[in-house]
Specification:
single chain, six-stranded parallel sheet
């Protein structure tokens, strides 16, 4: 069999078109949705990611700001900037691009963002809301993964789902979302014994460990939906995922490519969260949005 490819670019474009209509309504009502991106340091990948996010914002009618701080920035300086953005009524979403320079503790920085503007969904209050089943913001990559799984038509109730990777950004949140969808979830990590024993029984396999081709074709159940979150550089300097794509293509029922899979969906869900935040703010202000 040959897997069906879940085209993240195509799906993201469809969702962005839908969210643009909601952004247009906000702008027409005088509530222009606003996103502030904070970049600290000189990480080239971070700058590219933020540039792509800001470009996407502008394309659908979200006002965006980029705040760039030097690699030697102190914690008080970073927190002061976040405080200013928290107080800015024109900003509905704040993201701090990770990773941060070594002197800055990510948890401290993220916790300073107002939970009402934490469009990455990484504040402890938002993660707690996700755990309770009533999320304010769902972290962007996990939200995008669930949208991609919808396109397969799979009923997740009773399915075996295996998530490889336990980060707060992807692994843990997507495990919770799969659990809430009715799947039986196994969360694997670096201490898991006999990883292949778990992955071979997965109807849904999500890989997010950052190791090129860590999941071979023989580790995939025939007909499984495989979501590859990894993005790595191969020895030939090509972008590859955590899954051996060529081998998996012959085993899986559905698979996401790298690049062009999960990445575009992550940005699409950031736009979604920013517009949701602006809509909530409009409701609090008693602003009526057109149909």
């Amino acid at each position: 069999m040959t897997a069906l490819v879940i085209d993240g670019k195509q799906l993201a474009q469809k969702l962005r078109s839908e969210w643009k209509l909601r952004a247009d309504r906000l702008n027409a009502a005088g509530m222009a949705p606003g996103l502030a991106a904070v970049v600290i340091g000189d990480n080239p990948a971070s700058k590219i990611y933020v540039r792509n996010k800001i470009k996407a914002c502008r394309e659908i009618g979200i006002r965006s700001e980029e705040h760039v701080l030097g690699a030697g920035s102190t914690l008080p300086a970073v927190l002061a900037l976040i405080d200013r953005l928290n107080a800015d009524a024109g900003i509905h979403g704040i993201l701090v691009q990770l990773p941060l320079p070594a002197q800055l503790a990510p948890a401290v920085v993220i916790e300073r963002i107002s939970p009402d503007k934490d469009v990455d969904g990484l504040h402890s209050r938002n993660l707690g809301s996700l755990l309770s089943g009533h999320p304010r913001f769902v972290p962007c990559t996990p939200a995008g993964i669930m949208e991609m799984l919808k396109t397969t038509g799979l009923n997740l109730r009773g399915k075996e789902a295996v998530v490889v990777g336990r980060s707060n950004i992807v692994g843990k949140p997507v495990a919770l979302l799969l659990l809430q969808a009715g799947a039986t979830v196994t969360l694997c990590h670096s201490q898991t014994r006999n990883l292949a024993q778990h992955t071979r029984r997965a109807d849904v396999l999500v890989c997010a460990i950052g190791k090129p081709h860590a999941i071979g074709g023989e580790m995939i159940k025939l007909g499984a939906a495989v979501i590859d979150v990894g993005i790595n550089r191969s020895a030939e300097e090509k972008l590859v995922g955590d899954v051996d794509y060529g081998a998996a293509l012959q085993r899986a029922g559905w698979i996401t490519p790298v690049p062009g899979g999960v990445g575009p969906m992550t940005i699409a869900m950031l736009l979604c969260n920013t517009i949701l935040s602006a809509e909530r703010h409009a409701a609090e202000q008693g602003i009526q949005l057109g149909a």
